[in-house]
Fold these 3 entries.
Entry 1:
Amino acid sequence: MSDETSRSGFVTLAGWTNVGKSTLLNRLVGTKLAAVADVAQTTRCRITGVRTFPGRGQIVFVDTPGIHRPRHRMNRAMVEASREAMRGVDLVILVVDASRGLGEGDAEALRMLNGAGATVWMALNKVDQVRPKHKLLPMMERAATEWGIPDLFPISALTGEGCDALLDALLGALPVAPALYPDEYLTDQPERVLVAEWIREKLLAETRQELPHATAVVVEHWNERDNGVLAIDATILVDRESQRPIVIGKGGELLKRVGTAARAEIEPFLDRRVHLSLWVKIRRDWRDDRGTLRELGLT
């Protein structure tokens, strides 16, 4: 298929916090890029993932931090990143959690999208948790009639249900244009950033609701040894002294589990052996510190 019939463009995934946008990005791109955890505001920065369809076109997906009411400088930067990602794109998919229905948070997210002048579709995510399925019909009717979104897609980012249909519809709706990136291009995120996010994901899985927003991960050193092993030193930042033992765990066991789980994902992605060292440092009020936020790529 020539460039005269190939389609390409930008699609932003947006929505209220904790609706499954990062899981959906990973599903639509076909590989893991974004950290995924069952806590709000897991995604902190904008992540671009590219899916190329040979002979058909290319979709550039932009995952955004969940829209929420910010309390810290970090959260304000996250919401602004979401706003920026809605400007100048071909489509925005408003992702909602179908298992909990359309709520005020979703309505607030839609108001932000409409303010950006974007063309909005809706993905009713987590339909695998909706029983019976006909409970989706009132949501779809409300989205179409009250919210003015006729393009609706019931999906499950977790199981893949409905995602192929969404991809086909997106590709068909994008403008006729040549590919924006080479076929092998996957993401704009440096490997160091992805590694830091995957470490944080494993930490969130271990600490559950104890520390979800009080931690950050910075990759300090990235060195290839003579034997070909990649040595990565990463620092986990916490807000307070009381949080440090939680991250380390009894006898260092929790930190060891985090490192082992993270390395299991990092090595196949980088296609090399990795020696991962994790450290924990206290940096008070880092979420309101301009220097730290700049270091994390949030400002």
Note: The two ends are 41 Å apart (CA to CA).
Entry 2:
Amino acid sequence: MANRIDSMAERVDAQFTGRLTRIASTCGELSYELAADDLIAVCTTLRDADAFRFEQLVDLTGMDYLNYGQVEWSTLKSTGTGFSRGVARNAELPDASSGRFAVVYHLLSVTNNVRLRLRVRLADNDAPIIDSLVNVWASANWFEREAFDMFGILFNGHPDLRRILTDYGFIGHPFRKDFPLIGNVEVRYDEDKGRVIYQPVSIEPRVLVPRVIRDDNRYDAALTQRPANS
């Protein structure tokens, strides 16, 4: 496996010198970052060139780096003492100046039995947009619709960019870091109107903190308060 990855890395580095930048991967897969303007040309070469033959786009997702590695989760009462609360301390973090959003592509070469990951950072935080890969891999169609629905990322040239998971009247993009966990609205069936209606969300916001229940006698107040000779 290592030989296949190393061999593919050499070919990628030789073909795309100055266009792809190798980034660290905790799972040992090939991972590169590239500019949005180079996406179509690079992906077309990765698909068609005999040295690569990445026939499949197996996954595509958006990323939101808002406050990534900078702040702990917003909570009301609990603290971050003693356990991780979303901050990767002492880790090499993405450069926040590169843009809030990114799109990550997972490619598979069946011919060479190698996977490759591409990441493209999007500079516009208000209206993130990138070229569609539907004409390179048809599987990008639904993946890009999902990224649009969940993150609000626009894909230039997509033939039918509309929501795919949320309701038609849904407002906002639920995977964005600034989207409220309880949402903004809820739906219910109204007997009088005979249809589903929207209304302000009725759920009260609360902090979701893991709770550990101890059953052994070290945490039994009745036992710990007994005299030593009892």
Note: The first helix runs from residue 2 to 15.
Entry 3:
Amino acid sequence: MNYKLLVLDVDGTLLNRRGNITSRTKTTLLKVQQLGVRIVLASGRPAYGLLPLAKELELEKNNGYILSYNGGQIISVSTRELLFEKCIQPDMFPYLEKKARKKGFALFTYRDDTIITNMPANKWIRKEAELNGMQIEGVESVAEAVTFSPCKCMIVSDNEEELVALENHWKKHLAGTLDVFRSEDYFLEIVPQHIDKANTLSILIEHLKLNVEDVIAIGDGVCDVTMIQLAGFGVAMGNAQDSVKACADFVTESNEHDGVALVVENHILSAIRPAEVPLDQLNERARHALMGTLGIQYTYASEKRVEATMPVDERTRQPFGVLHGGATLALAETVAGLGSLILCKPDEIAVGMQISGNHLSSAHEGDTVRAVATIIHKGRSSHVWNVEIYTSTDKLISSVRVLNSVLKKW
């Protein structure tokens, strides 16, 4: 199955217990985006708290999305366009705050990069602010401070028994208006009615003109169950509760053992052959890499031959207007690298080991050169490519030999 959308919960799924994306997981997610799969970060976190992770995974360059507030918003990372939002009306807050005060509970909500709360010293609120890189604004009355429409608000208490009682009370008295659920033992979330990750993900799937069969969703929490069940392939983390695992098509390793990376490697990357990816898509994915910087464009790709072009302009010429030898070698490595990727088995990668070039002539500014790579040795542990580079009038200007080593991925 060639999946097109990868939906990831964040805490307990994408991030390990130290709050980091491991090197293996990051590398795998960057690679899968280069092959055309879009990533969605689906989390209860506010959008502001997800943007640093989106930047780390280069979602802006690869047309990824943020699904924040457990489904309250969808944002395109590349355009910052708000594709969907459902909010709580401000006139609900006097009632919510009255109930919270009666029980001695803290109340908070989000506005841009700020948490607004009646108990700014509460340890869980301070942890939430730190987790999302937000500041805290302490107020006498949250209801009076909320002159906007938030996507959600939170009740906080260490008294789990009383929090459960309030949850059950509000499930009856707010039915048809708001939904309530506990996301942690100490957090009671209040969101607009019918907001959850699956319902909002369905909106994004329709917007992208995809089918649920095109989607992999991975999560570890109760809030992830609906999206795991919705996706064509729903995955529970190894650290998930048994009730979450029971709803999944597959259970991967924990977030401490690169569970996300394993799913991507074995269920997405193993099914994608670079030769099957359209050239325009390969070129688009390379737009922000060295290829894009030098203006290199693939024009043909097969198991035996790869071709690409590169302009001789201010990016690739020497100061006096002739093609730079280093740019020529970069072009040669580019075509030979794709050729080896096409030849590699799903569990293999190709790494450049040696390059040797003979520059026979020069190309001048304003020309476009063409590289033709042909395989001359295909071994189990190495590939050797011969790359010939021509001007637009088919004059041979460089002959380059590239040696790539073939390695197991992990």
Note: The longest helix spans residues 325-343.
